[in-house]
Each structure stands twice: as structure tokens, then as C-alpha cells.
Amino acid sequence: MTINLSVRALRAFVVLADCRHFTRAAERCHLSQPAFSQLIRRLEEAVDARLLVRSTRHVALTPEGALFADAARRIVADAEAAIANLRDHAAGRKGRVAIAALPSIAADWLPGLLAQFRTRHPGVTIELFDALSDRCLALVREGRADFALAAPGVNLVEFDTRPIYTDRYYLVCRRDHPLARRRSVRLHELAGCALINLSRSSSVRQHLEPLLRDVPHSSTGLEVEQLPTLAALVASGLGVSLVPELTLFHFRRPELATVLVEAAGLERPIFVVRNKGQSLSAAAAAMLEMIQARAVAKRRDGEGRARRSRRARGS
Amino acid sequence: MTINLSVRALRAFVVLADCRHFTRAAERCHLSQPAFSQLIRRLEEAVDARLLVRSTRHVALTPEGALFADAARRIVADAEAAIANLRDHAAGRKGRVAIAALPSIAADWLPGLLAQFRTRHPGVTIELFDALSDRCLALVREGRADFALAAPGVNLVEFDTRPIYTDRYYLVCRRDHPLARRRSVRLHELAGCALINLSRSSSVRQHLEPLLRDVPHSSTGLEVEQLPTLAALVASGLGVSLVPELTLFHFRRPELATVLVEAAGLERPIFVVRNKGQSLSAAAAAMLEMIQARAVAKRRDGEGRARRSRRARGS
DNA sequence: GTCAATTACGTTCTCCGTAAGGATG
DNA sequence: CATCCTTACGGAGAACGTAATTGAC
Fold first, then answer.
1. What's the confidence (pLDDT) of residue A170?
2. Residue of A nearest to B65 (CA)
3. Per-residue pLDDT tens for B139-170?
4. Which of A29, A12, A75 is closest to B82 using CA atoms?
5. CB-strand contact A59/C, under 7 Å
6. CA A207 to CA A186: how far, in whole Å?
7. Which of residues 56-75 of B touch strand D (CB under 7 A)?
8. Closest approach of chain A CAs to the CA of B186, in angstroms?
């Protein structure tokens, strides 16, 4: 009872129902007339009903045939639409990308990149969640985001991860600070500085805490969540801070200076995080590709800056 | 660019999307696993997109595959519904029959027959137009009726016609009329009778007019449309009339008698009238079949009565 | 006689099942 | 090592095109 209909046969029948002429219908289907005739006959056998009344001179639909022709038209249209839709999605002309990214990344990298993506893939809906690492991972886990751009969280083993960038840390201080004119500083040189911390829940703080244990510094006791607040505190001379490169745009003010901090392990890797064994939609894959290309460019850019810095110091 | 999808392949894909396991899906489709695998591979080639991510251990849908699976489910369901629907119609379990019939036939034959048809084909909608011949033919021509049961109208050549019954004429008179006790009369015996006519537009009148030209009868000048009126006029002693057998139920009153009229050509053929080269729906064909069977029974019945009449008169 | 459908027939291609191969947990 | 998907391959049947046939106007 499991019949096999081919969309081809249905299309042929629709064409025949339209022009009611085997020879012409066969031409339109790029078939010889006998082959076409056989195709229709097999269709009638498959559905086990007479769909057409044929005389050698005229072809007419039976009432059942007319009924079935409507259904066939619907099915053929639906199948063709499904394939067209599928192709659009596969080619990245349609679709949806949902990205979860750390606020710093969302604010620094992504805006320009998303604009570029949109011009290249105008049919794709973009969803962007800017959230802290844990929330980013949760979004991926729940399937609400196709992938995340995040720093290493508590537990990444349940995900597929790939590093795409290593973010470096910068000292943020006032221009009148002793280290402000330096191209770079080493971590131990911060001994004695008054450090303003980010809140304990941030990935930056979690990353820095163990490294700073060896560096004697005077604690300011200040702890903030928002980077603009931090910038204002530093500008007011209450202390200095360490922030990842990606957040530097918060600190581009005339009264502030930013200095690269060099230290082993003082690099924050950024990962692309995805669900294990789950493939990306074409649109998401295209988006990720663009992001990775940008990351590579950024890395080269960073290295260039570093080399230039070393040359400037006359090494 | 004219791709061939088979519903079978789509169904296979749907099954696979449901259980995500080639071996089990193959079993459900009654295929060997390699054949099933090939079927899916060909489907992916046909739509030119990866629908599944296969590892030797796990099978997962790509986002595009999930999208297509929805469409496939829809198409498969639609195709199966279309076939089921078609079969229902072809088997007369569903459908619509529209009959156009002379009022006499509609009132005399059809009611019991339609009730019988309805019990046998409960899913079929029945439409009944009771109208005079010309209107019946118009309904068939317009496709609003599948067939008509009518007397020969002006122009039947445009239709396919088949006689199913020949209606005989009866004299309608009062019981005190000289001919009232007769089993049958010959047309010429009506000479001198006061005849009440039906209106000129009726097929009965058109049929009778030429035959009565040779019979000298006194005209009453009365002309009516409705048979109940005619019955009342005859009952009042204003004259007699000639009416087809099918209308006799109008004249079953204690004060009236009906007598078979014998004359060459004084028979009204009833035709089944259909559009040329247009086939009937299964439901309509079943209905027509029942009607014809009933007509045959009625004819035998009539002949029986006639034979009994002749015997009674001692021929 | 001509047009238009079907039937006949040989070839090609599709599609299946069995058997062997390879990857993953 | 057991599971499970793929590849390989030979055979059966499907499907096409050419040519011949039938039937209606």
C-alpha cells in the first residue's frame, strides 16, 4: 500500500491537464510522446484510478482527474518551493544566524562585520546576544545561538571549541602615571600600583586573579561591573586597572593612557563555541567564516603593532 | 534544472529524520540498509544540499535538513491525502452528484431511489434540480448537472443521449365519463371529448399537439401549467386530458379515472442526457446505474401490467 | 488521409540486495 | 570487538526512444 509517486509524473500530469494534448505535453516535458504516454499510464496505475478519458482525437479529464490535478498542482508547487527554499538557505541567501558574544566582542568586532555580512547576505536574519561567557554558553546549549564567541568558561568540554583569537591585556592609567609613556610593561612592574578590579563574576577577573596573586599591589577595594564606570574611576585618579584589548574603546579619552602588559599566561583566549556534533546552517557558517577572517586579520595587525613597538624601543 | 523527487525518497527522508538511524529507517521502509543509504544520498544529490551529518556512529540533520524535513513531511502527507481522497472519490465513497430531472421524474422515481443511494453512498452529496426539459438541458450544458433525465427537447444533437424509459400517455377523466371504465382506449376514440391542455411551453403539449391534429375534439380553451390545477379542472367536469404515466400520481383521486391511451407515436421517450465527451464521476456513474436499473424494473413492470390488461379484456 | 494516441521492442539506466570495507566508541 | 554507515558489484526491472499500429475525424 506504499505507493511511489514521482514529482516528475505529477508535473507531467499537470502539464497534460493544462493542454490536454499528449504530444504537446510530451514536448514541454522533453520526452518522446510514447514515453510520456507511458508515464501517465503508470501514474494512473499507481493511483489506481482513471484520470483521463482518451480518444485518439481528444483528451479529457475525468472528474476524479480534475480533482487530482488540483492536488498535483499543489504538491508540485510545494515541492518546487521547498527545493528553492532549501537552495536559498544552502547558498546563504536566506536564513538566520544567532550569535552569542561577549559584550566586548559584540561592541568592538561585530558591528562593522555584521553590516558587511548584511550587504553580502541581505536575506539572512541576524540575531545578536551580547552576554557574559556563562550566558553565552547557555544560549548555545539551548540552541538559541548557533555559536558563541566567548572566553573560557567553567566547563567547555561539553562543547566543540576552537580558539580564534588571543586577547592581550592592557594597563589603563592616567597620562600622568609613571608608566603611561611606556610602550609596554611587564606584570611585576605593576607592583605597588593601586588596582581597581572588575566584579568577581566577570571572566576577566577570574582570569587575572591567580596571576596577580604574585604581584604585591595595593588594593583600592573598588570593584565595578561596567567598564565606563571603571574608565571614570581611573580618570579620576583613584587607581589603575587591567583590561583586555577588546575593551580598550571604552578608554579612549585624552586623560587616559593604555599600555600593553607582557606576561606569560596573561593572554585571554577567545573561542568559537558550538554544540558538539551539530552542524551550522549555511548562513551561520558564512558568518563564522567572516568572523574568523576578521580575527586572522586582527591578529596580524596586532603582531605588526607589537613588532613596530619593539623596533621603536630600539631593540 | 527539472529535478525529480520521488515521494518515496521524501518519505524515506522523513523516516530517517524521525529516528536518525539508517538501519532502523531502512527496516521501516522495507529496504536493505545500503539501498536506503543510496536512496538518501541520491535525494541529497537531487536537491544539491547536505541534509544530514553522518558519522559512523551518529546521524544528525543539518539545519537545512531540518527545514527540508518539514517540507517533506508536508508534501508526503499531501500526496497521501490526495491519493486517499482520489480513491474515495473513485470508489464512490465521496463526491457529488447533480441530477437535473423533469418534475414528474423527480417526484415519482427519484425520492425512493435517492434515499437508497444515500444509504449506499453516505459520503456523496446529492443535488437535485427539478425543472422542465429545456432548463434541464441548460443545467447539463453549464456543467451544473452531471446528467439530466428529460424528454426530447429542441436540440439534443449537442448532447450524448440514451433512452432509458418510454412513458405512456393516459386519459384522465371523471369516473362518470363514458371511457372511464375501459382498460385502454385508442386515440381516435377521444374524438368529441373536451380536452384541457397543458401550456404550450410544456414538453407534453409539444409532443401531443401534432398527434391530436387528426383527432376532432372540442377545445375547452383551457390551458394550465400546473398538474394539480389540471386535476381539479378535470374533477370539476370541465373536460378530460392526456398526461404521461409519470404524472399520474397527481390524479389519484376517488372522483377521477385514468385510462391507458394506445396510439402509434404516443409514447414519450425519457432520455439520459449528458455532455458529449465528458465522463461521469464515479458517484454520478453509480447513481446513473441505479437509475437505469430502476428504469428497467419499471419497464418490465409496465409490460406486465399491459399483458395483464390484455388478458383481462379476454384477447 | 491525416492527426494523435497506443503498442512493440531493443537499449540504457536505475535501483535493489549481497558482500566487503572502514570508522567510531 | 561490535556497531553502523559506505563502497563495490551483479542482476532484475524501469524507462526511454524509434518504429509500427490503431482509431477517429
1. 95
2. A86
3. 999 999 999 999 876 677 788 888 898 889 99
4. A75
5. yes
6. 17
7. 56-57, 59
8. 47
CA A103 to chain centroid, in Å, comes to 15
How many degrees, rounded to 5, is the angle at CA B166 between CA B163 and CA B167? 140
Cα gap B68→A117, rounded to integer Å:
25
| Bridge partners (DSSP) listed for residue B223 | B197
* pLDDT band at residue A305 under the 50/70/90 scheme: low
Cell numbers for B271: 432520455
Whether domain A95-164+268-314 has CATH 1.10.3720.10: the reply is no
**Residues 4-63 (A) with a CB less than 8 A from some CB of B:** 4-8, 11, 30, 47-50, 53, 55, 58, 60, 62-63
Tens digits of per-residue pLDDT, B236-255?
999 999 999 989 989 999 99
pLDDT digits (tens, 9 = 90+) for A5-16: 999 999 999 999
- B212-244 core/surface letters (b: 16 or more CB in 10 A; e: else): beeeeeeebebebeebeebbebbbeeebbbbbb
Q: What is the pTM of this model?
A: 0.81
Classify residue A79 as exposed, middle or buried by CB count within 10 Å of its CB (0-12, 13-18, 19+): buried
Identical fold, A7-90 and A95-164+268-314: no
pLDDT tens-digit series, residues A22-37:
999 999 999 999 999 9
Question: Which residues in B lie closer than 8 A to residue A6 (C-beta atoms)?
Answer: 4-7
Domain boundaries, given as residue ranges, for chain A: 7-90, 95-164+268-314, 168-266
Q: Say if the Cβ atoms of B67 and A89 lie within 8 Å.
A: yes
pLDDT, residue B87, reads 92
What is the signed CA dihedral for B16, B18, B21, B26, rounded to 10 degrees?
-40
Find out whether B161 and B273 touch, Cβ atoms under 8 Å.
Answer: yes
Fold classification of B168-266 is D-Maltodextrin-Binding Protein; domain 2 (3.40.190)
pLDDT(B20) > 60: yes
Question: Within 275-294 of chain A, which residues have Cβ less than 7 Å from strand D?
Answer: none
Element (H, E) at A223: strand A218-224
Residue of B nearest to A83 (CA): B47
Beta-carbon count within 10 A of A137 CB: 23
Query: Is CATH 1.10.10.10 the classification given to domain B7-90?
Result: yes
Distances (CA, A) of A267 to A160, A261, B99: 21, 9, 88
In the block, cell 448532447 appears at: B159
